[in-house]
Amino acid sequence: MTAHRTTPPRNRRRRSGPAHASGLGRKETRKTRKGTLWGGLTALAVLGAAGFAAAGWTFVSGGGDGDGGVRGAGRAPSPSSSPSATTSPNPPSSSPNSPSSASRPSSPSSSPSARPSEPDIPATGPGTFTTAPGESAKVGTGTALRYRVEVEDGLKLSPADVAEQVERILGDPRGWTTDGKSAFQRVSGGATDFAVRVATPGTVDEICGQYGLETGGRVNCSVGRNVMVNLRRWELATPVYAKDVAAYRALIINHEVGHFLGHDHVGCPGPGKPAPAMMQQIKGMHGCVPNVWPYDEDGRYLTGPAAP
Prior knowledge:
This protein is α/β, with parallel strands linked by helices. The chain contains 6 helices and 9 strands; from the N terminus they run H-E-E-H-E-E-E-H-E-E-H-E-E-H-H.
């Protein structure tokens, strides 16, 4: 899901650190007709409200997440061992696993009724984070971008488990390393280029808001050197990916890290074609079929027309 775009998008180069946030006498007959009319209007109002509620789940006003995450533009501060929202805000623009299952989402559904039973999602948290221990091997060619994986304190997520998923996503041959110039290495200390941070909706709103982004408690963002992952999206995905939450997690990471690398939003390239990872899929598939990877299995970059 993506937050509201507050400024026009600006292309960013890798390491540029962007701010990337829905019967019956005559008299009685008149009364009866009047009652029938009001009853019909009431039913229409109820149906309309239900329809808007359903649309509110699928579409977020002003933006699109992880599969439509948010990012901001501008140059990032020099590499730091502590990427955080306290770095100087830059003008923002708006922007979604186990990779083994993420390649082919199983029976994706566009109906909210297909969502899994909703876990307990805290509205907000302390705003402090625990870094996943250890480090990974470098993946990709070129100079590796060093990143940390952090989980907000108090959540029922293991930082090590989240880090393992992020590692697999960024190291997948259908990921950004296929561009021939991007490389990544997860670390737990020292200088870092960015951090992937899973946090409660309230904390994501606070950090993204410092860059002028409106994430509304529902979407992700990429700001400065922070890839902010909304816990709600990490746990629940979206209706299209409700039966394959792991796939949606890959879309979140690929979409938001894509913004960090300088990629902007694109649209659906055509009916029946794979939805690009940089497409705001939460706003609708527009004829495209679900896909969470930047590249296909043959190494072809999956993109579409520039998004307005």
